[in-house]
Amino acid sequence: MSDIIRLTAAGLAEKLQNREISAVEATQAHLDRIHAVDSDVHAFLHVSDSALDAARRIDERRTAGEELGPLAGVPLAVKDVLVTTDMPSTSGSRILEGYMSPFDATVVKKAREAGLIPIGKTNMDEFAMGSSTEHSAYGPTRNPWDLGRIPGGSGGGSAAAVAAFEAPLALGSDTGGSIRQPAHVTGTVGVKPTYGAVSRYGAIALASSLDQVGPVTRTVLDAGLLQDVIGGHDPFDSTSLTDAWPSMAAAAREGARGDVLKGLKVGVVKELSGEGFQAGVQTRFDETVALLQKQGAEVVEVSAPHFEYAVSAYYLILPAEASSNLAKFDSVRFGMRVQPDGGGTVEQVMAATREFGFGPEVKRRIILGTYALSAGYYDAYYGSAQKVRTLIQRDFDAAFAQVDVLVSPSAPTTAFKFGEKLEDPMAMYLNDVATIPANLAGVPGISVPIGLAPEDGLPVGIQIMAPVREDARLYRVGAAIEALLEAQWGHTLISKAPALGGK
Amino acid sequence: MAKDALMDYDKALELFEPVLGFEVHVELNTKTKMFSHAPNDFGSDANTNVTPVCLGLPGALPVVNEQAVRYSISLGLALGCSIAPSSRFARKNYFYPDLAKNYQISQYDEPIAFGGSVDVELPNGRQVTVPIERAHMEEDAGKLTHVGGSTGRIQGAEYSLVDYNRAGVPLVEIVTDIIYGAESDAPELAKAYVATIRDIVVSLGISDARMERGNLRCDANISLRPRTPEGQPSAPLGTRTETKNVNSLRSVERAIRYEIQRQAAILADGGTITQETRHWHEDTGRTSAGRPKSDADDYRYFPEPDLLPVQPSAELIEELRAALPEPPAERRRRLKAEWGFTDLEFQDVVNGGLLVEITETVAAGATPAAARKWWTGEISRIANVNGVEASSLVSPENVAAVAALVEAGSLNDKLARQVLEGVIAGEGTPQEVVDARGLAVVSDDGALIAAIDEALASQPDVLAKIRDGKVQAAGAVIGAVMKAMRGQADAARVRELVLERAAG
Questions:
Q1: Is B25 helix (H, G, I), strand (E, B) or coil?
Q2: Is the entire prediction scored with pTM above 0.90?
Q3: In whole angstroms, what is the distance from residue B211 CA to residue B24 CA?
Q4: Which CATH architecture has domain A3-303+397-496?
Q5: Where are the domains of chain A?
Q6: By mean pLDDT, which of A97-106, A436-445, B487-496 is the weakest?
């Protein structure tokens, strides 16, 4: 395995800046790695054929003495939910097979401007609906830790790409945990920024009030570097915040250096433990909390009484918004078109296209959402769910009046086997129990690897949540935990992942 | 299309009370669309004024046009509405190929303006206050062209083309409360109401308000209820129909009258009215059934999660209030005085819906009298013959130019009518028509004198009469001269010269 691909994004960036490695070499190394292992992992739906050209241009600019961004020349995997002009964007759906967008998502545009090299589009559950990538129309992604297990979802492709060293950085989107849960099960870092911190323009919408784009990486610092590139106000997204943001990378560096844990008030969410949580997940989590305490953090148990309704509320709000967001896939202007035998009216063509083009989970949620918004049911379903959402926001407000950060296991279990939850949507949905509350409240959350579960040797992550706009706090605390654990282990967790077919 | 049975209008009014309600859509003339930076232009090539937002492409997001919000607030204030300190967009979900996202961004339970009224003056002098329930912002849909059918409608078409240039054009929908008490004036009230809305938006400068282009569209709701004896409570409201495709002031009036007569015939025959949209046919003067519409139509409205609430500051609202033009009723009183028209003359202008045209013609340099003469005269005549709006035929600038040519003596009335006809036929500006058709009056006295001398010489008896002081006899000579000049002479000048030469 090439040393280049083992580097962190920060490490690679430094070597690029020092001209020890060229962007072409860095890109080629990752393309080679994809070629070597992706037939096993299937993290990518499309690999760029213009990445080397883009890398060459970065090298030329660097040679010309141009001032480039800190990540210039670093390869980037892009979740297929984000539209790109040079690669198809399918959102994991057959209905968008081969779809070429006339514009780049704002985050992709910013990444290109910062000199990052998009090397491919990563697999995902169709339209980001799922927790395992088993709902991708193009076949599942496999977890690099155990190819018989799921890599999480919906952003399993991005997490697996990073875990399998196919890319040092990836972009994900998180509607109910689609960045954090895959990070948890693949031993990587995933951040869902504050709602509005990163532009949604060009992210194919699942549930507009919940979706947030964020970084998927192997280290907290790398995530910070990437959020610094993609974050900030976008006039094309009305819900994007106009705040001036501090550097997340700087916060991560500060956290890794030392004593940010001293006196930090940490709340352990009472409702996110116990029943339904795998023993080994709970063990690693409890150990990490004890470590925090040892470092001088004040740990208290915090109750968030309405979290128990979060999954229910989420599975009304999400399908409701999704049923409307997905209405545009009707074959009239773009995407797949299915003609019924003998032609048919526009209505029949729309119906045939949607019948053929959408997978079963998408149809399930469209039907749920359509029902939840229907006259006579709106108040009971969508209306009530919005009230629960308000109550959950109040739970967060009350908790953050007491503590600086909240912590929980990022998901109740380690990576499960393919097919294990496919026939039981409720079991699948419950895998997001820990991550959903942050989306409902708009608060930021990060998942940081904290070890392997003793019973199955699979990765476990801790979720840290902070108040709205306090993303930097996540990076400080996350980097501190990462540094402590790595010091304790004497290695990174990801270095223990299987080598795969890489030669 | 089977012909509907119609009841005599007066008879219908004897038996039933018409109850009205209007939804007027006003297209705002902002530079860009409601939620995207695509140009808001009419008449461009199909699908050229579009962005990913107008086309509902994956990943695109709407951004509210601030100017459209300002215009909507101004309109709300001009309608006497309260402006909501916080209003919200909502999604109205339904599948239709002219709707790129298959939902329309509109406002639902939280409109930007609510609770106003508009004073309307009817041709018979009656004043009616029309209650306004709300005015809300929304985006227009694209335009479908159905090809292959005989009617141009979707039924029977082989295929349809979609133009998304109009998709996302900012609209304000003005919804009235239920209007009672219109009685036999219902058709006139409908027309006067729409004309008043048009006057308001034109005076605000927020819309081109050209009905024939769809800048201003009226959906007319009407129901009938049987009259009850004096002292008895009113009957419950009848089932309503909503007539669409009413593209001129004239058709608003005609459509209401038609629906009253049609519904009355059905009800008197013991039938029931179907709640539905009706499609107005300008050519036949009838309505036909559109799609059934029930109150249970389920658009699955929910708050638009891609947009923040609209929260105009109190300062902005007051700034816009201070900048409002005078209300139409006041403006009418002022203009009547300024223009010096008699009651009858002014009523003519108002009934013709020509206030705006005359204002603009006067602004372009014509005298009020000349402007009135041409608009209520020749132009309205041509409009009536062709069943179109006078305003759609010719621009106020061109009318003023014709008036100026008359004033300067270059045209007489007869020639001016021909020039107008040429302008309306699209032959160019008045001067271009004059040049192309060679219509200018002969102002060369030499040519006139030669013609006069010849006419006098050929009519010695007339010459004798004129010399005897019977000046009116000159008419015959003047007629002959005008004929010889093919009408292209100033009759007043010819008369002067005839008398001069006869006195010789």
A1: strand
A2: no
A3: 11
A4: Alpha-Beta Complex (3.90)
A5: 3-303+397-496, 307-395
A6: B487-496
